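User: Predict the complex with 2-deoxy-2-amino glucitol-6-phosphate.
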Amino acid sequence: MCGIVGYVGARPALGIVLDGLRRLEYRGYDSAGVAIVCDDELRTEKRAGKLSNLEKTLGDERFGSARADGAAARPLGRPPMVGIGDGTAGIGHTRWATHGGPTDRNAHPHLSRDGRIAVIHNGIIENFAKLVAELEADGVEFVSDTDTECVAHLLAAALTDLRAVGEPDGPQLLAAAMRRVVQRLEGAFTLLAVDAGIPGAVVGARRNSPLVVGRGVGEHYLASDVSAFIEHTRDAVELGQDQVVLITAGDIEITDFFGAPALGRDFHIDWDASAAEKGGYDYFMLKEIAEQPQAVADTLLGRLTEAGEIMLDEVRLTDQDLRDADKIFIIACGTAYHSGLVAKYAIEHWTRIPCEVELASEFRYRDPVLDRSTLVVAISQSGETMDTLMALRHAKEQKARVLAICNTNGSTIPRESDAVLYTHGGPEIAVASTKAFLTQLVACYLIGLHLAQVRGIKYADEVAAVVSQLHQVPDRLRQVLAEMEPVRQLARELAGANQVLFIGRHVGYPVALEGALKLKELAYMHAEGFAAGELKHGPIALIDEGTPVVCVVPSPAGRGVLHDKIVSNIQEVRARGARTVVIAEEGDTAVVPYADDLIYVPRTPTLLAPLLTTVPLQVLACEIAAARGHDVDQPRNLAKSVTVE
Ligand code: AGP
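Assistant: Here is the predicted structure with 2-deoxy-2-amino glucitol-6-phosphate placed in the model:
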């Protein structure tokens, strides 16, 4: 929630900050704003709505007074002052509103009373009411409804106090003032600030909210995630919890909240810049759907050693720890939760360890039974989802071991886990998760196999056989993707429907849930996923003449009973007027008489089938949303990375 960018160097900051914000806009798009330090002055601009509103307001300013092509950046007649486009240090923000509606006034940056300090923020300052009351008692008048504005005023006060006691002016002073302020804040925050009187410096701080540093040559970056600066540098530094970072053109200095020097973790970004661009597709979502064969292949790459053992990434757990696990909890939210639901079938089948899947937002409130022999698997694409992070911390407090599945190097969830398996999906920009889901499934299968292996339940050759099936998935996915035209046509036909229901059994049930989630978030339609067997216990009453029901059918070659049961369920809904859209394995002729629309996917083992059957549902949701005229990549009310509880 909220994207944050900071830059200091020799180049005009505005263009760099705006480009970074464009890449972070998936994090929130209620408003956007920038603050650039120009010649001892602060220039800010902010606008409600998408980043494009702000860009329109700024016009040619991003090019500064001297454009590379020599053309004048400003209309003739404007005084040749140093403009917002000329400053070489600045910050920018794209917002997902928490405190205060999405208006110009509440857009970030927020300024000190004298307008010389600008602050941007991601997170929630929980004690803001107390701080506001205190500042108001000192005569500060607030001009926004946000929790953030108090930080600008506190920072101004801290700078005044430090100057009053003779602290020398300069970047260090800004960092010292930030440390004073963050010691007083409760909640979750990433903060960036600039001061017109301290040019050439941006200070940042983080607690429970993401912030990474980009290391350039003679320039440095701060951002919520690396996609903001990968076109400039691939060298990054991951900050730890409760750290303050000061960037200048020549230096990066990290301390804890009390000024003690601290270290970040250097890492190299292996995504390339084009991965964060649309690459000719109309939407990021379409591009990310198309990238799934590669994303799956990359996540599998190098996982099996010559000795036939599965490799995780960062492992601070011993095989004995894994052997001791007598219970597994999977914690996750949204799409990641659905991948956990699929994982349960594979993990229990392969390891015989009881496995429960929990919504991370509910986990700690029901006081789950956890101890050191519990293995908690936290699944998160972003690695920053606050509900999942809090559930993870609760598990660790109870001494459980935590293994993370994550797509984002440098994020908080893997850092706080005992072991990590990174999905190599590359950046996922569309708010609706697609390739993250498939790669999370692959990661779950690998973890299931690894557990089975260390516990002696599966031999290397058995593991290798499943891994070899997984290696065939990218080609099968390419086949599915090549045959999506009928799904696009179907989407156009269903775009006017009032509701769409999804049914499945076994691993097809989480796929049905995922299909319904995609449709809700993108098409704003009523959509529900059901375990097919549950229909007759109530939901079948929803079916009316023409109601589309998407049926995810398991392979007839796997568990015959499963297959036959869902065929009966399809007949039941059809008998009540439903339009049945059947997703089945190629060669499954038993479903033909009951399918109004039939989409075949290639044969694959039952447990792995969600890797294929999910794809038509992603395409269906994307195309229905487009047909209904919605913004596919940035659906209303949502944000990609949910860093508040
Ligand atoms: C689904 O399309 C969503 N983007 C959402 O449900 C997402 O999966 C959820 O918020 C969890 O995010 P995470 O994987 O980054 O933790």
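Residues 66-81 have pLDDT under 50 and may be disordered.
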